[in-house]
Specification:
The structure holds three protein chains of three kinds. By secondary structure, chain A is α/β, with parallel strands linked by helices. Chain A has twelve helices and ten strands. In chain A, α4 runs parallel beside α7. Chain C is built from eleven helices and four strands; from the N terminus they run ααααβββααααβααα. The chains are: A alpha/beta, B mainly alpha, C mainly alpha.
Chain lengths: ~280, ~375, ~290
């Protein structure tokens, strides 16, 4: 069994009275590609946001490489409202901002592409290098960090070349066609040197051919950068081809998990996607 | 490739600035020193600096702050309080029976070198005070979103103004009265033993100071930190996901911008020959904001050009609108006191409504030169 | 005792006058998400118009005419300065608002020649009344009642009329309500007309008390009323009114104490505190950014 890289332990996210993610426990191991699927509104992106620090989970724990990075328990107003399980299981609060999570080695892309639209392709990638640079604002202003700046530029350029975006480096990011924007977003995430990459619907809006290319691309970056990948996706072809394991969420609850073949034949999953028969009779 | 282009652009801008400085130096020593252009040059140098630092926040980091007048006030007061000669303190602070501060930086250093050093140190300290206060108010205020940030900083400006007019602080701030008698730009004119001016530097000095400060701002904007600021402007959530600490970087931009606004405030005091809290009102912030808009939000060269045009138009070119004029026996209608500002604000509204990107958009001078050159080349190729 | 009574009385009435301005800010913000920086200047212009109109015309004509013209001014400003920028970034329209404010102030300086103008005496409102030993103008007594009546009328209008329903829909979701066939432009115009009309009324009450008008007369009351609107939760009319009374009363109390220099500083400190502690104000609704 390979090393565990991401572990969610009984994570619950409640907004007001709505439990968006309910007692979610899952694992991603070193080198795996794991998919999180489920009907719209099942809480998939919310789960991502809990991992990356955009939201603070209401209850539960997230560990990265065996180390707890996010933890919370119902408190304040939530203490009375809390509708999930495992109350009292966790007693600490650890809520880093998203940039801290990225620094630890978790990078992500967004469901609705969030590039730095007015900046060039090259700058988009270069910005991701800012985080790991040792400079401070004075040394950067007075150009005392030439070597480091040079290295950042070279690394970014190399990454663009590897991703086949080098010829577009001076284009404004928002002017790229949709497929390339997605690819640039992934390249930008890779530029933070992550160990775990979270992809939020990378194939959304792509045609079958583009989806196929993306499939190969994801496999390829996993090999090249020794990544583990955790992704949300609706294209079942892609998911079934590429995933080592799949988790299925419905109404915030985990309803199934396992290898692709098992998920394909799981009755609960089919029901969640197609609706249960007696619904139709009403 | 891109670096090379950046470098050649940088050199072009530096050359241009140098030429401008030499030109001003020559003009100053040939034309009558009371000519309107010198007032315009001095004031626009100050405004260019303040507008550029506002642009760092509004244009590059996407933080809409309206606290400029407050930070200028801090710089102006710090500068004045530290540089008023000891012997003049009695008369300046006559209401409070003398100043609580018993030294003056230029005198502390002594001589001509002391004047230069003292003024510089006082300006920098003015900037530091502004930056420190910015850091303090940034802690709560920078968490606010766009318009709320604007109102909170606007409010901050009002508070600062009230504090400095407070009677109890009189021995330091001279209450609601003006601070004066400190070294101004004309103090830098070089005189011979008879007290006659040999070399006039009173317009050159503010331009040089502003050029250096704006140069530093430009270096910052083109550094890795500048890119991080732009990332925050484009998309805060994505910037955070790229490992950029929002709180830290916003505070940094706010403090640096306030530092240079503070320095600009000190220079404003030198320009006006006095510092008085009641002059640093909200409409001053609005003026600077309008300069930024006219120049183009996100363009430092735009801010510089616009501040010259703005000051020249309001103080000089449109002056004639304020006085009654006759053509033969016919009195030109409308012309009388106040008409200049009406025309002026109509022009501003036209820019805001119909030329929304301002003079330069988000382009800088080198970008423009490059575009011209490539257009020229294309034409040549076509022929 | 009489001293305190007089301070409280004038505080309440000042609060009422701010409330009338604050409603204009809060309604516009609720619908356009725009801080209408020119609103304070509309208030000032309303005062000036009254000065000039009453010099020509008898009061029963000049007063309604002033209100009508003020409402028209609000309508015009929106059409000329904000409508063209509706699809532009929010910062643009805010800058445009600042530009309009600058223009109105400069126009006022030009017209008045920079000299303070005396507001006309309005019979009854300007008359002195003595209550519990405190002598004050009738306007002080009447303001809070008038404000309450107007606010009740306004909330009825917003909650029960067709225009009001459209306003609420547009405030909730600009684009969707457009798709639902609501005539956005007329709703926005109605908002500006109502806001400016109330500012006109407010200026009548305010300047009856503080009689001299200069071009900058609108700036500070405008800012204070805006703070009141934010304080109460911008977008909420009852919030704006409550906020205005709080700001008005605390301002008069501080002006009457040794700390009078700090009356505006206090107002803004209050603003910063509420923004930091509860950014949505007392009655505001929370909005979230979707990731």
């Amino acid at each position: 069994m390979s090393e565990n890289i991401l572990h969610l332990d009984h994570v619950t996210m409640q907004f007001g009275g709505v439990v968006a993610v309910d007692d979610l426990t899952l694992d991603v191991n070193q080198g795996e590609i794991v998919a999180l699927i489920g009907p719209n509104g099942a809480g998939k992106t919310t789960a991502f946001n809990c991992i990356t620090g955009v939201y603070e989970p209401t209850n539960g724990q997230v560990s990265f490489q065996g180390q707890v990075i996010v933890e919370n328990y119902p408190q304040g107003k939530m203490a009375a409202q809390y509708a999930g399980e495992n109350k009292g299981m966790f007693t600490h609060r650890l809520a880093p901002t998203p940039d801290r999570i990225t620094q630890l080695g978790i990078a992500r892309t967004f469901q609705n592409i969030r590039l730095f639209g007015a900046l060039t392709v090259f700058e988009n990638v270069l910005i991701a290098k800012h985080m790991r640079a040792k400079q401070n604002f004075l040394s950067a202003t007075f150009r005392l960090n030439q070597k480091e700046e040079q290295r950042m530029r070279e690394e970014s350029m190399k990454l663009l070349e590897e991703q086949g975006l080098a010829h577009l480096k001076d284009e404004v990011a928002s002017s790229l066609p949709y497929g390339l924007q997605r690819r640039l977003e992934i390249a930008r995430a890779l530029a933070t040197n992550p160990k775990l990459l979270l992809l939020d619907e990378p194939a959304a809006g792509m045609n079958p051919q583009e989806t196929q290319e993306l499939t190969d691309f994801i496999r390829q970056i996993r090999e090249e950068y020794q990544l583990s990948i955790f992704m949300i996706e609706h294209h079942m072809d892609l998911v079934m081809q590429i995933s080592d394991r799949i988790y299925v969420l419905d109404f915030g609850k985990l309803i199934a998990q396992g290898p692709p073949e098992a998920i394909q034949n799981d009755q609960r999953v089919i029901d969640a996607y197609l609706g249960v028969a007696d619904d139709a009779e009403n | 490739m891109q670096e090379k282009r950046n470098k050649s652009g940088m050199i072009a801008v530096m050359g241009l600035t140098l030429m401008l400085l030499v030109l001003v130096l020559m003009l100053e020593n040939t034309i009558k020193p009371t000519h309107m252009i010198f007032i315009v040059l001095k004031k626009s140098a100050v405004y260019a600096l303040v507008a550029s630092s506002m642009n760092l926040l509004n244009g590059f980091t996407g933080l809409f702050s309206l606290g400029q007048a407050g930070f200028m006030l801090l710089g102006a007061y710090t500068y004045s309080i530290l540089t008023i000669p000891v012997e003049s303190r009695e008369s300046v602070y006559y209401i409070y029976g003398g100043s609580a501060i018993k030294f003056s930086l230029p005198e502390l250093f002594g001589g001509v070198v002391g004047l230069v050093l003292g003024v510089l140190v006082a300006l920098i300290l003015g900037g530091c005070v502004a930056a420190l206060v910015a850091w303090l108010i940034g802690l709560p205020v920078l968490r606010l979103k766009s318009d709320y940030l604007a109102i909170a900083t606007l409010g901050f400006g009002e508070i600062i103004r009230a504090v400095f007019q407070w009677d109890k602080l009189g021995p330091v701030t001279n209450g609601a009265n003006a601070l004066k008698s400190f070294p101004t730009f004309s103090s830098f004119n070089i005189e011979n033993a008879d007290g006659q001016v040999v070399l006039r530097l009173s317009a050159f000095v503010p331009l040089l100071l502003a050029a250096v400060c704006i140069g530093i701002l430009l270096l910052l904007i083109n550094s890795s930190y500048g890119r991080a600021f732009k990332a925050i402007r484009e998309d805060e959530i994505a910037a955070e996901a790229m490992g950029i600490n929002l709180a830290k970087h916003k505070r940094l931009a706010f403090c640096i911008s306030s530092f240079f606004t503070g320095v600009g405030g000190g220079m404003f005091a030198m320009f006006a020959n006095q510092a008085q809290a009641k002059n640093f009102v909200t409409s001053m912030t609005y003026e600077i904001l309008l300069i930024v808009v006219i120049g183009g939000i996100g363009s430092i060269s735009g801010s510089c050009i616009a501040s010259f045009l703005y000051v020249a138009a309001s103080e000089w070119w449109l002056r004639f609108l304020d006085s009654e004029a006759y053509i033969g026996n016919f009195q030109v209608p409308l012309l009388r006191t106040g008409f200049r500002m009406v025309v002026f604000s109509v022009i501003i509204m036209i820019v805001v409504l119909f030329f929304r990107r301002g003079l330069m958009g988000d382009k800088e001078l080198p970008d423009l030169l490059r575009m011209l050159r490539s257009r020229g080349k294309r034409k040549e190729a076509a022929q | 005792m009489q001293y305190y009574l007089s301070i409280i009385l004038s505080g309440i009435s000042l609060g009422g006058q701010y409330a009338l301005i604050a409603i204009g800010y809060t309604m516009v913000y609720g619908i356009l998400r725009l801080i209408n920086f020119a609103h304070g200047d509309v208030f000032m212009v309303a005062g000036l118009m009254m000065v000039y109109l009453s010099a020509w015309l008898p009061l029963p004509i000049s007063l309604p005419l002033m209100l009508l013209l003020t409402a028209a001014l609000g309508f015009l400003i929106e059409r000329a300065a904000y409508k063209p920028l509706r699809s532009a970034p929010r910062m643009s329209s805010m800058i445009s608002a600042i530009g309009v404010s600058y223009l109105l102030q400069n126009l006022a300086t030009y017209v008045t020649g920079g000299l303070p103008q005396m507001y006309p005496k309005i019979p009854f409102l300007s008359d002195i009344v003595v209550i519990a030993g405190v002598s004050t103008k009738w306007v002080t007594i009447i303001t809070p009642f008038l404000v309450l009546a107007l606010v009740i009328a306004l909330t009825q209008l917003i909650n029960h009329s067709k225009v009001g329903m459209a306003m609420r829909a547009v405030a909730k979701d600009f684009e969707t309500s457009q798709l639902m066939g609501i005539k956005i432009n007329s709703v926005i115009s109605a908002t500006f007309i109502i806001g400016s009309f109330l500012a006109g009324l407010g200026s009548m009450l305010y300047f009856t008390n503080y009689q001299s008008i200069v071009p900058l007369s609108g700036a500070l009351p405008g800012l204070r009323a805006f703070v009141a609107a934010v304080f109460g939760g911008i977008g909420s009319i009852p919030g704006a009114v409550v906020g205005a009374f709080i700001i008005g009363i605390s301002e008069t109390v501080i002006k009457g104490s040794d700390w009078s220099v700090f009356s505006d500083a206090f107002t803004f400190a209050l603003l910063i505190i509420i923004l930091v502690v509860k950014p949505t104000g007392l009655f505001g609704e929370k909005t979230t950014d979707k990731v």
